[in-house]
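User: My advisor, Dr. K., asked me to get a structural model of this assembly before our group meeting. I'm new to this, so sorry if the format is off. These are the inputs:
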Amino acid sequence: MRIRPIAKFWSAFLKICFEILCIVPISWICGRGHSNFIATSTTITGLQTREIVQSLVVTPGKDFNSKFGHYRHSDLIGMPYGSKVGSRTGKGFIHVLRPTPELWTMALPHRTQILYIADISFIISYLDIRRGSRVIEAGTGSGSFSHSVARSIGPSGHLWSYEFHEARAKKAREEFAQHGMSDIVTLTHQNVCKDGFNLTDAVDSVFLDLPAPWDAVEHAKQALRKDRTTRICCFSPCMEQVLRTVSALNDAGFSDITMYETLVRPHDVAQVPALQSITEVAEKLKKAEGVREIKRLQQIAAGQRSRENPHGEKRKRNEVGGHDELPVAAVEDSGSGKRLKTDDEMDDAQDADVSRSLDEPSAQAACAPPPKISVSKAIPEVRGHTSYLTFAALLPPMPPALPKDTNSQGEQTS
Amino acid sequence: MSASTDSNTRTSTIQSGNTIIFRLPNGDPKGVKIDKGSTVSLGRFGAFHANELINEPFGRSYDIVDKKLILIPPRSLAEVEDTDATNEYINDGEFVQPLTLGEIQTLKQSGAHASEIIKMQIEQHANYSLKTEYSKEKYKKRKEAKYSKTFTTIEPTLFNVCEYWFQKDPARIRDIRIDALSQILNMANIRPGGRYLAVDDASGLIVSGILERMGGKAAALLTWTYFTTESPPAYPVMVTMNFTSETVAPLSSLNWAATDQNYTPVGPPIDIPSEKIKSDRQKSRLDKRKAAIDLLNSTREELFAGEFDALIVASENEPYSILEALIPFVAGSGSIVVQSPYGQILSDLHTKLRALPGYLCPSVTEVWLRRYQILPGRTHPTMNTSGTGGFILHAIKVYNDESANAITSHRRQKPSANTSNTSGKIIIVADEADASMGDADESV
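Assistant: The format is fine. Below is the predicted structure of the whole assembly, which you can bring to the meeting.
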């Protein structure tokens, strides 16, 4: 039982320091083969701190070594996700987690600037990406957004992803395959600003994370289906880009053009002693003053008594009472207990009262710290800007018939 | 329509029985149920026959003329010409508009189009020509909001529905702004085919979001209500989502008493000899009660089978008590996401969870969103904006292993490492460690 809080504390610390998450290639995005246990030949990702995550494949026979301990891949097989695993050396441990696009965003090797949860989740909502959606993204970059989209659309949807950088495209294709997303994502190595998307009236939404999205707007319009309202998002860090994009979107016939910025504000939660009111502070000061005054009077009285009655009994009992000319502070420290018993009735009562009220809070402070409260504040240094999210909608084209005809049709049906 | 390739959570065109959100000329949203053969009234903006909207795609704008709809093309952004005009010669309180209210009323009654009324007002306006082009645009826009009868149908996407409710009554959806809802759904890893637990006191906004992302794929979503209901709770937000029945199918609900494994639901006697059943009415009543109990029991079995992918909480009740009750049914590595409009509630919860080994990396975040006005030459953040979208706590469920030990060397260098090279997060964790706990550790 004694060990529990310690274990708690260390796990709390190491949780942050080191975690591992596991990725089952065929199942992790789409939920197929929905096992809660780690199987042979799985991909794993490990987390060095909360912000740094690394990934590896669970391969029987392989070892995983780091400064946080030594682990055999084969030991992980058959464990439930979420398990805490101790190192073989007995020092250090890891947590084994089921992969999610959010963890992957923390784990993925950065090849480009990547999108984080605030932008990703907001774009997915605005673009109305859900099961079965057909989506275009350009460029693929490091694949952070791709994983989230693939998770949301599932096997009945499709993501066409375009990357103009050949090596990045290759890398991303490998990752998609390893994560079992190959049948959901089609990755094309292509410069969409020059060559377009090779799709016509095919997709529900387009996401452009390109240096010059305005060059791809007409291509995007061609790829979007025309039988219902479709949407586009352009992700640009600079206002100048936004303005050019807006004007390109407007010229291409997009409507409802709007722009957002979104961020996450992480908060630090701390436990601090309950705050003392100034009334309490003032009370303490008053009491301390009162006690000092009483003691001063007592010293004077004792001095007088000793002068009047130099060999009397009282003086003996009241040794501390100023005879040694101790400073007031010292008297306060050592005096109260003894004097309480010896002083005459009136002084006794008063002094005891004062001393007790003075002693109690300090006694409490010694054995039980004041109650703590949880407080939080935004952490001092945060990401202040990612990109501007420019959105627009493309409405189905106006019916060729004159508005009057539409009206008479409406009348016929009614 | 290529409905087969569509996501099938809702129809892609307006159908009879839908609850449609309209954007009125003054910018306000209004939810109206569309029934075949009925008349849709948009208050002072006019009325029209519902049939005219049926089978129309979402997002189009219409003018109401004589109870009929005229489709109007989407608006494009117009460049504003820069002129030398300033407001130098325009003073407040001057008499500028000779057109009287009565005259305008007469014009309106005579069926004059909004654009005609505005044109007349402009012609008679004494100082209109002195205005800057930007000011003229604003003037026209203000007048349009007043006289125009143009409305737009809003597609019931999760984004639009959330925005509608947030504008209409944020308290009813626990101040969950769309950016917060989006983050909650992503953090909880909602996907087709998942199984989720949700506690939704946000009028069904959370449930709607989860159902939308599950996409009607056979799976489970358990929610909690105060009272047991025989059918899934009628959430007001879900009505505006216009879900198909397939989409809503995974939803079932429990009350808090039935969540206790030791609880036995009070039901009808199981074996009543058939001769004792006196009437058909009594029989159907008994059958109904039995069906309700069976449903409750099967929902409880589903819950107790556990291994849910995530737990999402947006509740008026004390959040830790909810986690305590439901955490056993969450699968290892599953996400726990708790929303609150109040940071303090999540700070307290965070303090509790951080001390427990079963919750990995609890974190509290606040959402932040800024919208911009996009007009040529006039791009800036909107002047009025929502101040907050709420707070979110996220943690991952893990299984503790008491025998797993920390690394001693790492522990020793911790205090110095914190100050030099690690992130803010880790410093906090180290600070949080009580000195007494650290001492106790040495003695082991």
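One thing worth pointing out at the meeting: Chain B is about 35% helix and 20% strand.

User: Perfect, thanks a lot.
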